[in-house]
Amino acid sequence: AHAVDVAYANRPELRSLTAQREAIAQEIAALQKDYLPKVGGNASYTWTGSRYPLQDNWNLGASVNLSVFNGGLTTAQVGEARATLKGMEANEEALRQNVALEVRQALSNVREGVAAVRVAETGLVQARENLELATGRYATGAGSILELTDAQASLSSAQAADVQARANYRIAVAALERATAHSVR
Question: Residue 35 has what DSSP assignment?
């Protein structure tokens, strides 16, 4: 669960969708303000005349604009923005589910990689012990060359399996880091 939360916080595509969703929510709020009347005002102060002292003039004005015929357009724009927002929310939820699945699969692969490395290490230890036994038996004449070469081949196979298990583990860790967009080291 922690890895999924880390992925939610760090994945750039999720952060991008979140920012887009927030921008659309702001757009809806701005569009809804078109329902309200717009109030304006102005003021001016001037001096006029051809002789001193000049005459003072004050002009004050106020206006209230209410768009009666624009209501349908504003309603349509708000509806469109809300539909876009719902689509963004659905896309974000789908992406969150995909990210969670990817993280859980990567975690599972890491756990499997750890188990595979342990098994490979155990196999490597056993193959080394078998080679030592086969070498000792061959040296004393109790074992055959075939037994010795089989033990050597088993050791080579165990070493290859160990290398492969470690490589698979590192690949699984890299996949987890990619899924969470965060280094796990």
Answer: G
Q: Which of 72, 37, 66, 172 is nearest to 116 (CA)?
A: 172
Residues 6+ apart with CB under 8 A from 112: 172
In the chain the first and final C-alpha atoms are separated, in Å, by: 18
Does residue 71 register a pLDDT over 60?
no
Kindly tell me the sign of the dihedral angle through the C-alpha atoms of 45, 48, 53, 57: negative
Q: Do 10 and 180 form a contact (C-beta atoms < 8 A)?
A: yes
For residue 18, what are the CA distances in angstroms to 5, 9, 28, 156?
Answer: 15, 11, 15, 52
pTM: 0.67
CA distances from 136 to 122, 145, 159 (A): 21, 11, 21
- Residues 98 and 95: their CA atoms lie apart, in Å, by 5
CB 176 within 8 A of CB 103: yes
> Scanning the structure block, which residue is given the tokens 């963004």?
88
At 130-169, the pLDDT tens digits run: 999 999 999 999 989 999 999 999 999 999 999 999 999 9
Q: HSE, CB side, 13 Å, CA atoms: give it for residue 134.
A: 18
- 52: number of Cβ within 10 Å: 6
- Tens of pLDDT, residue by residue over 78-90, are 888 899 999 999 9
